[in-house]
Amino acid sequence: MGFRLPDVSLPEFAHLIGDSAEAAGTGETFAHVYPASGEVTREIRLASADDVDRAVGAARAAQPAWRAMPGDKRRDLMLRLASVIEARAAEMSPLLSAENGSILLAGPHMSADAAQKFRYFGGWADKLEGRTVPTWGGPAHDYVAYEPYGTIGVIVPWNGPLFAATMVMAPALAAGNCIVLKAPETAPWSIMKLVELIRLAGFPPGVVNLVTGGADVGAAMVEHPGIDKIEFIGSGATAKTILASAARSLKPVGLELGGKSAVLVFADANLQAAAKRGLSGAVSANGQGCVNGTRLLVERAIYEPYVEMLKAMAAHVKVGDPFTMDTIMGPVISEAALDRIHGMVTRGTAEGARVVCGGARMGGDHAGGAFYPVTVLADVAHGSEIARTEVFGPVIVVTPFDSEEEAITLANDTDYGLGAYVHTTDLARAHRVAGQMMAGQVQVNGSGEAMTPCVPFGGMKHSGHGRLGGIEGLREFQQVRNVWINLQ
Ligand code: NAD
């Protein structure tokens, strides 16, 4: 049975092409499943390559006027959108929960975050200045101008579609690009609502276009010659397919991929706070956050008390109905994901990991949904699969270390490089260790607070390249033109 979906008003249209809002695409039919109960929320007629083609045409038709629009007007539209998103947050929250089982408690924060991105980058839209360069040689005037690419194809995952889409759309729009956005068919509702709000805010038709679909729709976007750059947020495996396809047309691709982010807990840390933050790696986004700290490295002197603290805190995490306001963690995305997660946990214990808590599918009321409990595995060997591979479920692994040097070596000995978390009260150590983390974002005594629109976010190594957020995020959607004028 699980926890049934309450009456939620799902968006009317699944696709937006120019000014044409369409409930049905010309592709396959997909039955969207609510993971807390396994019930089908709605059958969606997905987009096809033909719909992608129409969406690209609409974006390209709208782009010259969008680019030419004075920056203050683009700014005002983006600020208006931010206000509309805030005003409609109560409509957005149930859709966020209905699409992937995320907790209702988090909904207002997700809307506030989306609004802040449009505010922050709206603020850049009227400040897209270039620069002049003092030239070498004879008298000349040289300047650098930053230009939009044109049309950006945006492909996002199911775990936080609104978060991921707005992370790309806000800087891309501010820079003067138009957008073809794909909503993932497995979690489509919040993006459909976002696009509805974009229309309401008064954006010109064609500036943002929506196609809802799966891998074939994403592939059609990557192959389409009318898309000037792809921004992809998702798994490394899909990124490789996309890069292979983009290689044929030399299309630029920005990549925000997965992680196995290390959490370094030193003996001098505030243990209570470090345990709460450490546990959030299993709990945040129902354990399915790309930047969750999932690999805990703990100084041996405090190892056992720290593991005990994790266990005690995990017992207080209420897992269940996403629509109940005291629920802290909902289901994972699907039965298939649950089986994959449990398979990894089982292999981890076979490789010597100790189950501190969790480790088996939840029964009783939870049996009808894809519920997996908060799972802490201790004494995990650094080389084991569960220590090296992204689980993307509510599972954290704990490994002891004996020295700062060893902690740094273990933290960096991974293919990934998205986030790193350092817990210490020693300021010199904080700087020393942070400066050696091979990760795109290092948080000292934090567990997610840094994820605001004003700072660059992105990965090193297999976690991707390019940055979203901050001025670096804006630059991802600008091309550079240098102009040299002979003054002789
Ligand atoms: P995924 O790679 O399976 O799918 C991501 C998107 O790509 C979906 O919209 C999917 O339809 C589309 N897609 C699939 N095949 C495609 C193809 N051949 N061509 C074009 N598009 C295609 O990933 P997922 O399972 O949806 O998401 C989970 C992954 O995303 C995890 O690895 C997670 O860490 C990562 N992620 C990263 C960030 C970040 O900012 N770094 C944020 C969220 C999630």
UniProtKB/TrEMBL annotation:
Query: Does the keyword Cytoplasm belong to this entry?
Result: no
- Family membership noted in the UniProt record: Belongs to the aldehyde dehydrogenase family.
Q: Per UniProt, what is one Pfam family of this protein?
A: Aldedh
Q: What is this protein called?
A: Aldehyde dehydrogenase
Q: Where is the active site?
A: 256
Question: Which GO molecular function annotation, any one, does this entry have?
Answer: oxidoreductase activity, acting on the aldehyde or oxo group of donors, NAD or NADP as acceptor
Query: Which UniProt keywords are given for this protein, alphabetically ordered?
Result: Oxidoreductase
Gene3D superfamilies documented for this protein: Aldehyde Dehydrogenase, Chain A, domain 1, Aldehyde Dehydrogenase, Chain A, domain 2
Tree of life domain: Bacteria
**Organism annotation:** Novosphingobium resinovorum
Keyword Ribosomal protein annotated:
no
Domain Aldehyde dehydrogenase residue range list: 26-483
> InterPro entries recorded for this chain?
Ald_DH/histidinol_DH, Ald_DH_C, Ald_DH_CS_GLU, Ald_DH_N, Aldehyde_DH_dom
